Amino acid sequence: MSMNKEGCPICGFADITVLDNFNCATFEICECCGSESGLEFDLHSTPEHLAKIRRKWFKEDNCKWWGNKKLIPPNWDPKEQMELANIEISL
Ligand SMILES: [Zn+2]
Predict the structure, then answer these.
(1) Helix residue ranges per DSSP H, the chain
(2) What spacing in Å lies between the alpha carbon of 35 and ligand 1's midpoint?
(3) Residues with CB under 5 A from ligand 1 (ion)
């Protein structure tokens, strides 16, 4: 199981550190999808588990920006964001 320390494993938002140097959850909350490292997911989360959270955000919440609207990147495109993070959108 591998997870990048940087970037949200759910939505691909880059500006979040999800694991520290010891691979422990940082309890940072993703501004984009609202997932919390250590609560919604951690190093041991399965791809299925991550996909389940992602699906909920993607379908039920329509990729809604969760956090501070001022932090939304210019021309933000959630699908593009996921593609750049190599996150597969499996619905
Ligand atoms: Zn996220």
Answers:
(1) 47-55, 78-84
(2) 6
(3) 8, 10-11, 13, 30, 32-33, 35
pTM of the model: 0.93
User: Which tens digits make up the pLDDT trace of 31-77?
Assistant: 999 999 999 999 999 999 999 999 999 999 999 999 999 999 999 99
Quote the CA–CA distance of 17 and 37 in Å, as a whole number.
9
Domain boundaries, the chain: 1-85
Q: What is the pLDDT of residues 3-27, one digit of tens each?
A: 999 999 999 999 999 999 999 999 9
